[in-house]
Amino acid sequence: MIKSIGTFRVSPCLPSSLHRLTELAYNLRWAWHHETRALFRRIDRDEWERSGRNPVAMLGAVEQKRLVEVGADAGFLAHYERACQDLDAYIADKTTTWFSKSGAAATPMRIAYFSAEFAITDCLPIYSGGLAVLAGDHLKSASDLALPLVAVGLLYQQGYFRQYLNVDGWQQEAYSDSDFYTMPIKPVLDANGRELTLRVPVGAVDVVVKVWVAQVGRIPLYLLDTNTDENSVGDRDITDRLYGGDVELRIKQEIILGIGGMRVLEALHITPDVCHMNEGHTAFLALERIRQLMTRHGLRFEEAREVAKAGHVFTTHTPVAAGNDYFSVELVERYLPLHYGALGLNRDQFLALGRKHPSDSSEPFCMTVLALRLASHGNAVSRLHEDVTRRMWADVWPGAPTDEVPVSHVTNAVHVQSWISGEMSGLFDTYIGPSWREQPGDQSAWKWASRIPSEELWRAHERRRERLVAFARSRLKSQLRARGVGVTQLHWVEDVLDPEVLTIGIGRRFATYKRPLLLWHDVERLERLLNNTDRPIQVIYAGKAHPRDEPGKQLIRNLIHLASQPAFRKRVVFLEDYDLDVARYMVQGVDVWLNTPRRYMEASGTSGMKAIFNGALNLSILDGWWDEAYTPEIGWAIGAGESYQDEALQDQVESQALYDLLEKEVAPMFYDRPGNHLPREWVDRIKSAMEELCPVFNTHRMVSEYATRYYVTSYERYRRFTADDFAVSKRLASWRQRVTASWQGVRIHKANVSLPDTMRVGDPITARAWVSLGDLSVEDVSVQFCLGRVNANGELISPAVITLRPEGSEGGQKIFVGETEPCGASGLHGYSVRVLPVHPELSSPWDLGLVRWAT
After folding, report:
1. What percent helix, strand, coil does the chain show, rounded to 5?
2. Would you say residue 415 has pLDDT above 90?
């Protein structure tokens, strides 16, 4: 190989009439703006597909002759002018967006959103799965709503792996280098016009980081890249692959993302008020933000922590402890001493920040714990996931009852315009009007879904199913050729799938807990269902297993072997290399989206939401988002949310329930077409699902909820903590240290209640507690009376909490008294008393991890 001694960039030579094509190509709004995508496709459809639907690469590859032709074509020029005008109006709009109409629009608020991966479009391969899709859709809605937000991520040279299967059905992983200069990203330039780089300490080495930007509508996404000549080979590879290395590579990537990301913003003179940590991968940003506050303003660690925490929001997506990032003491000592030294912390003090039990020297350092400790708001991504998260991380707040653990939820959603088909979009424009696009969270807009003529809705959906079948056949041919199957042996592929048959989609990461093969639990019964003469069913699968997940790979192999049997070969297809393009075809074309995880293991899931907007129905275990969305009028639930100790029994019971639903409800409803061959009950259910679910499960609703519940309150809190030379922060830090040091002096000596001889429903209760506070005052604590029903273990069930008021002293003990509301139910009740630290600026009374319960 010949090593280059210099580089230069070559840009396409555009006719003057098309000089803004490059501008359109570099603003990723085209990823969800159908008319702009159609403009690029119109230039050269074949080159558009060959480029991976990448307008930057396409413009560099298309023949100059063709550019001259379209530059003189009146129809094309009219289309081009519309696209330019639309982008200009979108960017310039300062009055009609959601944020401009909100109360926070007058503030100088700035939000920074950090994530390890983003799925914006196919040709920016820095994504692997659901977390990235959620992050990408978050940015798109933030742009549409005009939030003052910037985003930070990593620019992976090889991204996530490309999947292909060998002749035995085993997943193989292929990686290819991305050419960043033919992607819709640009190097960030410094004040002198040079490409911006900075150094980030990773252990004993300063790693050079180059900064790129992808413009996502109104939102800049800054991407960090370590593949620069100044770095060693090992350090160049830090941003080589997404989830491709071991835990040592992971800690280095997360240092670059969190610490390096905050330094990039500092170099760009962007000082965020609110930092949103999307999953624990990003949590090191909290430490760097503390360091910057200490350096700029001369604050102590404890004071800077209060300031930074006030402006931190953390979202966890992981429902199993093993799915979170844990780093050994040895790795922390190797890669982070300069960083915790700059915070004025020793090793043990630093490790305590990332441990559930700070003094347990055997516990590794957990990024999720770090984020939870340093955020004023922590949230899960569905209602059910909130309960799971509270149980998982309750030990971070010792003594807190599970239902009081300070974690809430914002249910995930999808960016509608990124996932909706052109056919369905046209129907919505005609019968709902522009409000579905501009205000998809408006319930009143979706009421008009019932006005869509059933015949038109069904025909639009049938066209998408036909396209999915054609796409699947083409893809299957390519897959088989790659495995060495000759052309003469491929004739049968033309008969694979049927564009008129009930089509089920199953797209997900192949992992054992997701149970992608639950449908195959009883192969003979499945065969009867798929090949039913009157009501046949067909299934399209797609999904990758993690490169190190051997059981997940075995699931794919098992599926390939089963699907290759003569009875299934024309009814079941596995599409390799699940990506945004495959996902789009699937959610737009299937009739039913099937999801079968073990309950409590799916944090949210979003694929089934995408299917709703395209006229598909959901058939799912009551987990994640479906647990809060499901009603019998809009889809089907497998089971009723039961819990099982025996997983084999669970698989048996739930697979039979699945077969019963398919055989007795789903297929009959799909094929019941009296008179005009229209499945009226099915179409009515589609309309009901759209009316109920579309206004809720879209990211405009989700992002506006983050804004109103978390971003605005965090901004106000952060501003309050920085005012008057950080007076509030300093007072709170001092108070926290004093209360923590004095808490051992808090004792509950006695607690009782005044009860009548016969307690009846409607009778009130007076409670008293005698408490020693040591060096603390009554203003430092909240003494609380907890009253509720008692379970078989003597535990209070969702107790009411009443704050008692101080009422004198007795023998050096403070007396606290309070009256409860009348008892509203009969049965066995119980009570307890607790003392919590209280301060008007605490984000939660459990923030200090201190509580004293009566014994």
Report:
1. 45, 20, 35
2. yes
Per-residue pLDDT of 802-812, as tens digits, reads 999 999 999 88
Please state whether the predicted TM-score (pTM) of the whole model is above 0.90: yes
Count CA within 13 A, CB hemisphere, residue 789: 9
Integer CA distances (angstroms), 833 to 747, 759, 770, 800, 814, in order = 11, 20, 10, 11, 14
Residue 750 DSSP SS3? strand
What pLDDT, in 10s, does the model give residues 537-553? 999 999 999 999 999 99
- Strand pairing of 186-187 and 205-216? antiparallel
Task: Please count the residues of the chain.
Answer: 855
Question: Cα–chain-centroid distance for residue 367?
Answer: 17
Q: Which CATH superfamily is domain 98-103+111-409 in?
A: Glycogen Phosphorylase B; (3.40.50.2000)
Q: In whole angstroms, what is the distance from residue 393 CA to residue 10 CA?
A: 53
Do 449-696 and 98-103+111-409 fall under one CATH topology? yes
Residue 727 pLDDT level (bands cut at 50, 70, 90): very high
User: Does the domain spanning 746-853 belong to CATH 2.60.40?
Assistant: yes
Q: What phi and psi, each to the nearest 5 degrees, are found at residue 391? A: -70, -40
Tally helices (H) and strands (E) across the chain: 34, 28
**Superfamily of structural domain 449-696:** Glycogen Phosphorylase B; (3.40.50.2000)
* Segments making up each domain of the chain, as ranges: 16-92, 98-103+111-409, 449-696, 746-853
- Per-position DSSP letters for 64-75, written without gaps between them: HHHHHHHHT-HH
